[in-house]
Design a protein that fits this description.
Blueprint: E1 2-6, E2 9-16, E3 19-23, H1 24-27, H2 37-41, H3 44-57, H4 63-70, H5 82-89, E4 94-97, E5 103-107, H6 108-118, H7 120-164, H8 172-191, H9 195-201, H10 215-233, H11 238-265
Length: about 270
């Protein structure tokens, strides 16, 4: 569930069957006067658009029953609800939901047409805000992917530690200390502080310093974990590795920043 704000109107966006559905119930608040979704459904053009969409995307659409309903559009006595359309025609472009995020929802293709019914200006704004939401989601996915990559590489990193730095017959406390120490080699090389130093400086923050990194820092951290594993396998001492990793961090972050600056200039 996500929220977008369109001309001071808060509009809910839900994922239903991996598709984006937008709340018509929220959108109707931007329409002046006494208007309802059923008023929009009385319009013949509305029904024709929904019918075409269903024929294209819904193999179980009951177009025979739908055509009967559509033939009545325009009559003063004609009324049809979303619930009736769903039950009689098996449509999927509209959803009537109960509960916490209850209301009438429409697939984004239909919702944008509903926005045009509210006003051309409203449609332009809702399309813009929806696109912004999708861009933010893609950025979040990219950050998460980099974070997961860093976690995977951390397992490679700790495996090298266990094979090369942990002597036999150590206590669990000693082993944990060595792992923490090696994690802090990377922390100090990239962030200039240990995990404890970061927690002491940020007592109100949840998680750890790596949960607050940029994508560039995550890329660099991922590379450093692999390099540190190789250095450990080559029996390079911890002080030497710290110096090398710090130099690598400075060089890689400089390159990544240059690339980012060039993108901004374009």
């Amino acid at each position: 569930m996500a929220k977008i704000f369109v001309k001071d109107t808060e509009v809910t966006v839900l994922q239903i069957n991996n598709e984006d559905y937008i709340s018509l119930t929220d959108m109707i608040k931007a329409k002046d006067g006494e208007y309802f979704v059923t008023s929009w459904l009385r319009n013949r053009n509305t029904l024709e658009y929904i019918g075409i969409w269903e024929k294209v995307y819904n193999p179980h659409f009951n177009y025979v029953e739908f055509d009967t309903i559509k033939s009545q559009a325009g009559l003063n006595s004609f009324r049809i609800s979303v619930k009736d359309l769903i039950e009689k025609c098996n449509i999927i472009s509209l959803q009537a939901r109960a509960g916490r995020y209850g209301g009438t929802y429409a697939h984004k293709d239909i919702a944008f047409e509903f926005a045009l019914w509210i006003s051309p200006e409203f449609k332009i704004y809702i399309v813009r805000e929806f696109q912004r939401l999708k861009e933010d989601e893609q950025k979040a996915i990219g950050w998460t992917a980099k974070r997961e990559l860093a976690k995977i590489n951390y397992h490679i990193h700790t495996s090298a530690i266990s094979r090369n730095l942990i002597p036999k017959q150590l206590s669990k406390e000693q082993i944990n200390f060595i792992y923490a120490s090696e994690a802090d080699v990377l922390n100090v090389a990239l962030f200039g502080m240990t995990a404890k130093e970061w927690r002491d400086k940020n007592p109100d923050q949840k998680g750890n310093m790596r949960d607050y990194t940029t994508i560039n820092e995550l890329i660099c951290l991922s590379n450093m974990e692999n390099i540190n594993a190789v250095l450990i396998n080559d029996a390079v001492s911890q002080p030497e590795r710290l110096v090398k990793l710090n130099q690598i961090a400075i060089q890689q972050m400089s390159v990544l920043q240059e690339v980012e600056n060039k993108k901004k200039l374009k």
